[in-house]
Each structure stands twice: as structure tokens, then as C-alpha cells.
């Protein structure tokens, strides 16, 4: 018997509650881009990487807000009913998770965009904004 089958599957109700909670806390690039294309996306898309990383390339409509700068004072201009979607580099980075935790602790609704800019740009090929850098001479 394989190791996966050593543990019984969750009961349907347990699985339903788990996956409902999971989807309440995360979204993916496809869903975010579909909402942006409607022109009426009900969230603020936050790129929580450094300004330098953001300037190189970021998802369209994203606002840069490095996760280490998120606090009650820096978010004072956002209404408490603001919905945030946060992302960072990708699966190997937990900056978006840190940002989501901070936003939730401050009382904001938040979802993490799984895959980050890596999936957005490299796999899905969704539109990005890039800094124009002059060629080296």
C-alpha cells in the first residue's frame, strides 16, 4: 500500500469545509486577470515585493506595497472594507503570505494570488508593466 493511502480521506463535509476555506484565502492568476478584464475588479492588487523588483516587471493594475511596510499607519488611506489580493515572486517566496497575514490582522479582507508574478508573467503570459531600461554601452 502506498503512503498516500495509509491515511483515510476526509469525510465529504470536512473536505468541503477545508476547500471552501482554502478558496476563501487564495485565488490564482487566471481568476485575477479575468476580473481585471471586466474593468470592474472589486479588489486592490498588491505587489508586495521590493520597489526594485516591482519596477522591473509587475502585473497590470498592481500597486507596489512591500510587505515589510504594511502596518496600520501605512494602510490608513484604505477603507476597512477594501478587498486586497496580494502576490510576490512565486511559489518559492512567502512575502505574499506575510502580507496577507498582516492585512488580515489589521481587519482587511485578503486573498493570496498563488503563483505570483512568476506564474502571471512566465506561464500565463498575462500583461505586465516593465521599466524601460536603456541598453548598456
Summarize, please.
With 137 residues, the protein is of the alpha/beta class.
Q: In words, what does this structure look like?
A:
This protein is α/β, with parallel strands linked by helices and 137 residues long. Helix content is 36%, strand content 19%. The protein is built from five helices and seven strands. Strands 1-6-5-2-4 form a five-stranded parallel β-sheet. A two-stranded antiparallel ribbon has the order 3-7. The protein is globular, with a radius of gyration of 17 Å. The model has no long low-confidence stretch (mean pLDDT 94).
The succession of helices and strands, N to C, reads HEHEHEEEHEHE
* Terminal-residue CA separation: 62 Å
The counted number of beta strands is 7
Structural class, judged by helices and strands? Answer: alpha/beta
Mean pLDDT: 94
Helix content: 25-40%
Distinct helical segment count: 5
Descriptive key words:
two-stranded antiparallel ribbon, five-stranded parallel beta sheet, 5 helices, 137 residues
In terms of topology, how is this protein built?
Layout: H1 12-25, E1 26-28, H2 29-38, E2 44-47, H3 51-56, E3 57-59, E4 63-64, E5 83-87, H4 95-105, E6 109-114, H5 116-123, E7 128-130
Parallel strand pairs: 1-6, 2-4, 2-5, 5-6
Antiparallel strand pairs: 3-7
Amino acid at each position: 500500500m502506498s503512503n498516500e493511502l495509509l491515511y483515510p480521506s476526509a469525510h465529504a463535509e470536512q473536505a468541503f469545509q477545508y476547500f471552501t476555506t482554502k478558496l476563501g484565502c487564495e485565488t490564482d492568476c487566471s481568476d485575477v486577470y479575468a476580473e481585471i478584464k471586466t474593468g470592474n475588479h472589486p479588489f486592490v492588487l498588491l505587489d508586495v515585493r521590493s520597489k526594485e523588483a516591482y519596477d522591473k516587471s509587475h502585473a497590470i493594475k498592481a500597486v507596489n506595497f512591500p510587505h515589510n511596510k504594511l502596518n496600520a499607519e501605512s494602510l490608513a488611506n484604505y477603507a476597512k472594507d477594501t478587498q486586497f489580493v496580494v502576490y510576490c515572486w512565486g511559489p518559492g517566496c512567502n512575502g505574499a503570505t506575510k502580507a496577507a497575514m498582516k492585512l488580515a490582522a489589521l481587519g482587511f479582507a485578503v486573498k493570496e494570488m498563488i503563483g505570483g508574478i512568476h506564474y502571471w508573467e512566465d506561464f500565463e503570459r498575462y500583461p505586465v508593466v516593465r521599466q524601460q531600461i536603456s541598453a548598456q554601452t
